[in-house]
TrEMBL record, chain A:
Residues 2-234 form the ABC transporter domain. This is ABC transporter ATP-binding protein. It comes from the Bacteria. Keywords: ATP-binding, Nucleotide-binding. The keyword Nucleotidyltransferase does not apply. SUPFAM superfamilies: P-loop containing nucleoside triphosphate hydrolases. One of its GO terms (molecular function) is ATP hydrolysis activity. Pfam families: ABC_tran. InterPro entries: AAA+_ATPase, ABC_transporter-like_ATP-bd, ABC_transporter-like_CS, P-loop_NTPase.
TrEMBL record, chain B:
It comes from Euzebyella marina. One of its GO terms (molecular function) is ABC-type transporter activity. The chain crosses the membrane at residues 21-39, 225-245, 272-296, 308-329, 341-359, 395-416. Residues 183-420 form the ABC transmembrane type-2 domain. It is found in: Cell membrane. The keyword Transmembrane helix applies. InterPro entries: ABC-2_transporter_component, ABC2_TM, ABC2_TM_bact-type. Belongs to the ABC-2 integral membrane protein family. GO terms for cellular component: plasma membrane. This is ABC transporter permease.
Length: 247, 423
């Protein structure tokens, strides 16, 4: 589904690569977690795959579509849920979703019923006509998620989709993402919540300083590290305990 | 097309949800045009109707100074307040208590009379009309200066108008003195009218192209509405660029970049809505000029038979303004960049466009710069319609330039965005 070959990104004026010669294959219907400390290159990788950043070198394809030649078709099959809410605060949840749905060519009653359906599933049915600026962080996160999946993408990129939300919202989001995955959506996800990733992801890759340092199924990785009882301990064993601060 | 309308609908919703912004967008331009016109019209009225208090120091105490005083009083522009000394008058003007002091020098009447009589006698002597053919000894009379003290804070235009008026008055008095001297030399009967002293040459202002019996001279409204409307239309670059910068900060622009929608479509939605705002602004300005101005005692705006051309010009001027706003919004990274730059740039464009100072009165270099200001093209197009009564053919060059400006600025915006965010 996603083929990444020797993908690198070095920002202008940066003294190191954010992503360096990264090779990765993500198969259809996988929930693939990209984990790593701050500055590891997670967001840079997702930004390149979702057409926001130009790779310095290397290439990738998604469902056989190349970012270099088939960007328009590629954008149609991917969905992005960014870390920021990326919503218009003065518009209602329905108006926001109607607009972003329209950008994927959805329209009319089909679009309306899709919006209503998703809002209902994520517990926002009664808030459809409320302005987003009145919403809590968790509610905004859920609208943010719907805006990325209205068009039923084949591949969904999620950049820390549960950051800063309450347990109930997190639970609703994760359950809904699992449902989407069961219906055929491949998910690429980044998070700092390692317990969440351990339970949610079918496969993970831990990256540090732009390179993959280990990858596989969470349970397998835990088994491989004898001293580790969970993914967090694997993570610390592979990335170390030193603070990662970058400016 | 569906995406374009969805974008326009979103922009419309965003705009209508911001009541404060909407009010500012529509009310401030109206307030601007009303304020400017009332001030300008009031300035002319001040000069014509209400009296400006001025100081007069009469060191002459003769017929000429009395004549000047009479002329000043009958001009209906000034309230003459006598001051005994030049020093006191100068101090009062320096302090800003009065805008003007006129000092009539000592012996002005006596010396003028003497000078004129000498000249008249000399002329008559040349014609052999003097009774005694003995040449008069010419006295040395120094030219006299009427001193004008202006408050340093007064505008140059005000000073020039006053100086010109006093100059005319003094010339008239001098001429009358000459006529009087001839009269006295040529006849002993003071009742006998030898000279017709009424001005032979007078002026009549005619608007070019107007029918003689319907000579309508452009008033302050006809000048102000187009100039300040255009200024307001171009101010749309501020809310538009701020709208775009806000989208960047909200992250919605980032989301849109991942959506299968072109930047041109996103800009198209903004263009439709902000162009509509510009046209509504324009319509409100016209309504104010036609209906509100007469109620405020200002000259009424005449739009009869010109509406379609006026809206045509407003449409293309609006497009040019929107294009500039799109470019600024694309390039600016923060509101701190877009707002001050946008506001200052519009003022510069307005200055270059001839909103304050006519282009013909500018230095050559500025005239060249003015030629590349979209506000100058728009202003000329509005003046063409409002004041010169031209047709579509004459308007074409100006509206073509405005449209070209829109295409170029929008094209640069798209190109810049593609280059910056190229994948």
């Amino acid at each position: 589904m996603i083929e990444i070959r020797q993908l690198s990104k070095k920002y202008k004026d940066a003294d190191r690569y954010s992503v360096r010669n990264l090779d990765l294959t993500i198969y259809e219907k996988e929930i693939f977690g990209i984990l790593g400390p701050n500055g590891a290159g997670k967001t840079t990788l997702i930004s390149m795959l979702s057409s926001l950043l130009k790779p310095t070198s290397g290439s990738f394809t998604i469902d056989g579509l190349s970012y270099q030649n088939e960007m328009k078709q590629l954008k149609q099959i991917i969905g992005i849920v960014p870390q920021e809410y990326a919503l218009y605060p003065s518009l209602t949840a329905f108006e926001n979703l109607k607009y972003f749905g329209s950008m994927y060519g959805l329209k009319g009653s089909a679009l309306h019923s899709k919006i209503e359906e998703h809002l209902e599933i994520l517990g926002l049915g009664t808030f459809a006509n409320k302005k987003v600026h009145t919403f809590s962080g968790g509610m905004k996160r859920r609208v943010n998620l719907i805006a990325g999946i209205l068009h039923r993408p084949k591949v969904l990129f999620l950049d820390e989709p549960t950051v800063g939300v309450d347990v109930q919202s997190k639970n609703a989001i994760i359950n809904y993402l699992k449902e989407l995955n069961q219906k055929g959506t491949t998910i690429l996800y980044t998070s700092h919540h390692l317990n969440e990733a351990e339970n949610f992801c079918s496969h993970i890759a831990i990256i540090d300083l732009g390179e993959i340092i280990c990858k596989g199924e969470p349970k397998t990785l835990i088994k491989e590290h004898k001293e580790a009882e969970n993914l967090e301990e694997v993570f610390l064993a592979r990335t170390g305990k030193a603070l990662r601060d970058y400016a | 097309m569906h995406k374009l309308w969805a974008s326009a609908n979103k922009e419309f919703l965003l705009l209508t949800r911001d009541f404060g912004g909407l009010a500012i967008l529509f009310l401030m331009p109206l307030l601007l045009v009303i304020t400017i016109t009332v001030i300008q019209d009031g300035t002319f009225k001040t000069l014509k109707e209400s009296k400006i208090p001025i100081l007069l120091v009469d060191l002459d105490q003769g017929t000429v100074s009395k004549n000047i005083q009479e002329n000043l009083k009958t001009s209906d522009q000034f309230e003459v307040i006598a001051q005994p000394t030049e020093e006191k008058a100068e101090a009062l003007v320096q302090n800003g208590d009065y805008q003007l002091a006129i000092v009539i020098p000592q012996n002005l009447s006596k010396n003028l009379k003497q000078k004129v009589e000498e000249n008249v006698s000399g002329i008559l002597d040349r014609f052999g009309m003097e009774e005694e053919n003995i040449p008069l000894a010419k006295s040395i009379i120094e030219p006299k200066e009427v001193k004008l003290y202006f408050d340093p804070a007064t505008q140059i235009s005000f000073r020039n108008a006053i100086k010109s008026g006093i100059d005319q008055m003094v010339s008239k008095i001098e001429t009358e003195s000459i006529y009087k001297a001839f009269q006295e030399e040529l006849t002993d009967d003071p009742q006998e009218k030898i000279f017709d002293t009424q001005p032979f040459i007078t002026f009549k202002e005619i608007a070019p192209g107007s029918v003689s019996e319907n000579n309508v001279i452009p008033n302050s409204t006809q000048h102000n509405i187009p100039a300040w409307t255009l200024f307001a239309i171009f101010f749309i670059i501020l809310p538009l660029s701020i709208n775009m910068v806000k989208e960047k900060n909200l992250g919605t622009f980032v989301r849109l970049r991942t959506n299968p929608v072109s930047y041109a479509t996103v800009l198209g939605g903004k263009t439709i809505v902000f162009l509509s705002v510009a046209l509504i602004q324009f319509a409100l300005m016209l309504i104010v000029g036609v209906y509100l101005f007469p109620l405020l005692g200002l000259p009424q705006l005449s739009v009869a038979g010109k509406l379609s051309f006026l809206f045509l010009v407003a449409f293309f001027a609006g497009l040019a303004a929107v294009g500039l706003g799109l470019l600024l919004g694309t390039i600016a990274k923060s509101q701190e960049q877009s707002a001050p730059f946008g506001a200052t740039f519009v003022v510069i464009l307005a200055a270059l466009g001839g909103v304050w100072v006519p282009v013909f009165a500018m230095p050559k270099f500025m005239q060249v710069l003015s030629g590349i200001s979209p506000m100058n093209w728009g202003l000329n197009a509005f003046y063409d319609v409002f004041l010169r009564n031209v047709g579509i053919i004459e308007l074409l060059p100006e509206i073509a330039l405005l449209f070209l400006f829109f295409l170029i600025t929008t094209g640069i915006s798209i190109f810049y965005n593609e280059r910056k965010n190229a994948v």
